[in-house]
Fold this protein.
Amino acid sequence: MAATTSEVRKQRAQIGVRTLRGDRWWLAPLGTFAGLTAWLLYALIRTATQSNYWVDGYNYLSPFSSPCVSASCAEGARHFGTWLPEFPPLIPLGILVLPFLLGFRLTCYYYRKAYYRSFWLSPPACAVAEPHSKYTGETRFPLIAQNLHRYFFYAALVVSLINTYDAVYAFFGKNGFQMGLGNLILLGNVIMLWAYTLSCHSCRHITAGRLNHFSRHPLRYRMWTWISKLNAKHMQLAWITLGTLALTDAYIGLVAADVLPDLRFFN
């Protein structure tokens, strides 16, 4: 005779602690929490200051302020014209695209894992019980908005094109071609941003995720294999791009404030 559910439960070990793991499992979520919090604070402060985002003459524009289409922007920084009036204090100059970039990062599959574990402790680590008694997944507001990730990916492609234009534009000044350390930093940041954007799970699915026969679509299959290799590094690229964005903005800010001279290689 089969045992009843209540009998099976009585046979199970009653564990009073949160987990039996003996390693320092809390280091990973704590490090993620500290890293993301520090980056968010830095980005919030820098975007709200509306200062030291543009280096005239070298044409360095911080990615945090691009595209700069407000009358508050320096004239040379308005690469795409002036669409908006002057902004009041504390409004980021790149507000036009920042919500889409934030949406892309927040709905990213890796970042979901990162902040679910480090901020919501849901769960904080494998084999560690979460403190929440109820779980509804991503079926209700606001987490149901995670399904918009593909559309934020399309917006991120446009923003990557804008950042690419900014990086290329900086190579040309009044005296023609020019290059300094800032150009290399801008270029490196753009390359990493493209790698992170194209490594997105949505990009991999769009490329060939719905094909039933790869042999009938050799070009899409080849693209899918390239994207899959990038996708395997999606977590690393997510963190690298946070670093390159902060580095690029900080370098441009220091040069714009005359704290640090730009190392020039040509012109």
